[in-house]
Write a structure and sequence with these properties.
By secondary structure, the protein is mainly beta. Among the domains are: 217-359, no CATH class; 389-587, Jelly Rolls. It has five helices and 40 strands. The strands form four sheets. It has a six-stranded parallel β-barrel with strand order 10-12-14-16-15-13. Strand 3 and strand 4 (83-86) form a beta hairpin. The longest helix is centred in the first third of the chain and has 24 residues, at 14-37. It is globular.
């Protein structure tokens, strides 16, 4: 063997060297050709390969759309957890890409390599996606358009979005417009210049850090950032205000949860303008609205209407401003607020105002914090308007009469001709208000308020009608249907269907099951769109069993109600709303 090894490492002769070089070049050429013909599934999708020119003159809209259609992907649900999801990245090489319409993107990595994208239609966004779930966007310069990124989703669980190393110029509205629920958003290392607004945020958890904002010189009576829902943390932001004196501010806070500003510079160019205007009212529930500001430079002299750090159109549960540098009052409140009654019904332990430890050069006539906020009055609150027992009974009877007047569901079928639900009585078991306990005396999630304070119900044959006893956004009542025995071999499918009672109402709903054997609470689904569509879940998959019987509780959530005539302003439950649950069943499986 040693001799053979010695022979193997002998220097090649010139003849052998030429043969090896020819063979190696042929193999290399074959691999290059094969790579072009049969790219690996993990290879990025290059928009140039689909006809995008990137010269700043040609319209690249159609070519870029073709690239996103070619992404492909792998998606499956890992047992007992969420989906895993992988798609080929989309790459924009160096260049200036002009588009004339919006580009619908995918849940993938979208990478710019020195790429500039310019939207020539000022009323259209650049990138948009209505099912944004797991998405990363980096390395772009975005120019013009209504929004640079317009992203939403129908409350898809365990979502995340990352936007990093991007430059945003000249959007006519919010540069990033988000309505993404159950999503964690991270924006980092980004710059905004002359955008009418930077962010319109409706996201459960959002962070902006290590970024720069120079505001639009024509911004009037608005904020650079609209924080409408969830939690928002902004850290290490450098803000340059172009002051015009027209009630400009950095952040309008509408969220009933959390706004945190840490190590931010809200600069003093032109005197600066108001860091925060708050519109979120103090709540008497577990999730109170909070504003927290620390280690920041806070200038606001250039907004004469609101010369302070936090201006309260409404007062949140908590404002904490610590270790900051400023020379204006910390908190001012709307003059028409009545200190004696404002916090009526809010527990004293849910209210906190702390503005100590700041370096504040202000010496004007107004206090840094209104004196009454140091120890606010918290008288017992007036009870929210609620239907009386008599009014509730009358509303339930009206709902029952409407339900009885509806035509029969009949033997409805899908487009393929297959039944949407079982119609043979031997192939389903009804879960009715007569056969099971429909319990409203449990507490709403994350509150100390019983579901019965918001909802009332009455059985109508195999159906159940609900009436909303009082209004209230952010209150999500549910009914717990107790001790449903699931025969996993005969009737493994849990199904339900809501129907329209003709009272101009749609709603958002969710369903969970509590498995008594394991004490696990399992989420089956949540939906808003197509509220009245038939829903069904195979509990064999949910419970991880195929035989025997299991005892579960079924929790049906009425998350909110929207009236068609209120437009798209969100779910606005109204007192007296009526909803019909046509049936809740265990069905046989068609296999």
């Amino acid at each position: 063997m040693a001799q053979e090894a010695d022979l193997f490492i002998q220097p090649l002769t010139p003849s052998h060297r030429r043969k090896w070089c020819v063979a190696l070049s042929q193999v290399t050429l074959a691999l290059v050709i094969l790579g072009r013909v049969l790219p690996l599934a993990a290879d990025p999708v290059n928009v140039r390969d689909f006809g995008a020119v990137g010269d700043g003159e040609h319209d690249d809209t159609a070519a870029i759309r073709r690239a996103f259609k070619a992404v492909g992907g792998i998606s499956a649900k890992y047992p007992g957890t969420a989906y895993y999801h992988e798609m080929r990245p989309v790459v924009f090489p160096y260049g200036r890409y002009r588009i004339s319409d919006s580009i619908e993107i995918n849940n993938t990595t979208i990478r710019g390599e020195g790429a500039v994208i310019e939207q020539t239609d000022p009323q259209k966004p650049i990138f948009e996606f209505a099912a944004a779930w797991r998405l990363r966007i980096s390395g772009f310069t975005f120019l013009s358009g209504k929004h640079h990124l317009q992203l939403s989703n129908p409350n898809i669980d365990s979502g995340w979005i990352v936007v990093e190393d991007c430059r945003f110029y000249g959007s006519r509205s919010a540069s990033i417009h988000l309505y993404v629920q159950s999503t964690n958003l991270t924006i980092r290392d980004c710059t905004w210049l002359q955008c009418m607004q930077v962010l319109d945020n409706r996201c459960d958890q959002a962070v902006i850090r290590d970024s720069w904002i120079t505001t639009h010189s024509d911004m009037r009576d608005m904020a650079a950032i609209e924080h409408r829902a969830g939690r928002l943390t902004i850290q290490n932001l450098c803000g340059v205000p172009l002051v015009n004196g027209q009630d400009q501010r950095w952040i309008d806070n509408h969220s009933t949860e959390w706004l945190s500003l840490i190590q931010c510079r809200f600069g003093g160019e032109g005197g600066g303008f108001t860091p925060v205007v708050n519109f979120a009212k103090a709540r008497n529930q577990t999730l109170g609205s909070m504003i927290y500001i620390r280690d920041s430079l806070l200038c606001a002299v250039g907004n004469r209407q609101r010369q302070c750090v936090v201006y309260c159109e409404e007062i949140p549960n908590s404002i904490v401003v610590r270790d900051c540098n400023t020379y204006v009052p910390i908190v001012r409140v709307r003059e028409s607020i009545d200190p004696a009654t404002y916090f009526a019904g809010v527990p004293r332990q849910m209210i906190r105002f702390d503005v100590r430890g700041n370096c504040n050069a202000y010496s004007g006539p107004d206090p840094i914090l209104p004196a009454w906020l140091e120890d606010p009055a918290t008288p017992p609150g007036n009870a929210e308007p609620v239907l009386t027992e008599e009014q509730t009974d009358a509303a339930l009877k009206q709902a029952a009469a409407r339900a009885a007047a509806l035509p029969s569901l009949g033997n409805s079928a899908s487009e393929s001709g297959a039944p949407l639900w079982q119609t043979d009585p031997t192939r389903f078991q009804s879960i009715t208000g007569e056969s099971h306990v429909w319990d409203l005396d449990t507490f709403m999630d994350a509150t100390t308020e019983k579901n019965s304070s918001l909802l009332a119900l009455a059985p109508v044959g195999d159906s159940v009608v609900f009436v909303r006893r009082k209004a209230g956004v952010g209150k999500w009542p549910h009914v717990q249907v107790r001790d449903v025995w699931v025969d996993l071999e005969r009737f493994p499918i849990l199904s339900l269907k809501f129907r329209d009672l003709g009272n101009n109402v749609v709603a958002s709903a969710a369903v969970k099951v509590l498995d008594h054997e394991t004490q696990r609470m399992l989420v089956l689904g949540e939906w808003t769109n197509a509220f009245y569509v038939y829903r069904a879940w195979d509990l064999r998959k949910t419970l991880g069993a195929t035989a025997g019987k299991r005892r579960v509780d079924v929790l049906v959530y009425l998350l909110g109600v929207a009236h068609h005539d209120l437009g798209a302003e969100g779910l606005k439950p109204q007192q007296g709303d009526q909803i019909l649950l046509q049936f809740l069943r265990m069905e046989a499986a068609d296999e």
